[in-house]
Amino acid sequence: MQTADLLTVYDTGVRSRLLLGTARFPSPAVLTAAVRASGAELVTVSLRREAAGERSGQGFWSIIRDLGLRVLPNTAACHSVKEAVTTAHMAREVFGTSWVKLEVIGEDDTLQPDVFALVEAARILTGEGFEVFPYTTEDLCAAERLLEAGCRVLMPWGSPIGSGRGLNNLFGLEALRARFPQVPMVIDAGLGVPSHAAQALELGFDAVLINTAVSQAVDPVLMAGAFARAVAAGREAFLAGPMEPRDMAQPSTPVIGKAFLG
């Protein structure tokens, strides 16, 4: 399911606001069916995973061709600037795109991004013509530096990769969205159920990237469809203008004209 308005990143319009990761699906057939159920037009792929075996790489490209998808290569599992930049160069050669989801991991238990190395790598890559999608935290200073480095989209985490905890720091994410209202933002990592995705879109984020919650579901295809509907509902709710929370009750039935008995 897709909303009518386009998501625009690096001057490219995408109809679906659900981005899908391609790792850890039970089979290529399930991946294909899940992508179709999700309506996703943009999928992420790890260079290292696809390069691990010739047949797996060929199978992936067959799926991409059949579904007409756009690929966003990532630098998953990179822990240094040099490693991330080298992987990005390899991905541009292999996948034929200047788009790259830039990951520089700084902490192994939470897979938290190293924002210092991330900014440095982003500056190098944008200077070399890459269009960088940085996987970052909700830190306002890091966001400012990434934009100064040439990034035109941000991908803040909801919570640690694969944790399924949803939006851990609502205050920080709301502050980030408010601070940079015109910058496309994709919530990446940690979303476990469709309601998490709907909440992200309701807060004004432009899209979500889902992988583990779909690929590791008992029924990945059914879950992909559920996320698609949640994303569409969340976006429509944001556009409709949600009511502000109140501290006190407010009656939905007018009290004017009501008879009061003494």
What percent of residues adopt helix (DSSP H or I)? 40-55%
Which regions have little confidence, pLDDT < 50, spanning 5+ residues? none
Helix-strand topology string = EEEHEHHEHEEEHEHEHEHEHH
Distance between the termini: 56 Å
Strand order of the largest sheet: 5-4-3-12-11
Beta-strand content bin: 15-25%
Please tally the β strands and state the result.
Answer: 12
Shape: globular
Structural class: alpha/beta
- Mean pLDDT rating: 91
Number of helices: 10
Major beta sheet summary:
5 strands, parallel
What's the alpha carbon Rg, rounded to whole Å? 20 Å
Description:
- The termini are far apart.
- The radius of gyration is 20 Å and the shape is globular.
- The longest helix has 21 residues, at 220-240.
- The protein has helices spanning 28-38, 47-50, 54-67, 81-95, 115-127, 140-148, 170-179, 194-202, 212-215, 220-240; strands at residues 7-9, 12-14, 18-21, 42-46, 70-74, 99-102, 105-107, 112-113, 131-136, 155-156, 186-188, 207-210.
- α5 runs parallel beside α6 (140-148).
- The chain has a five-stranded parallel β-sheet with strand order 5-4-3-12-11.
- 42% of the residues lie in helices and 17% in strands.
- It is an alpha/beta fold and 262 residues long.
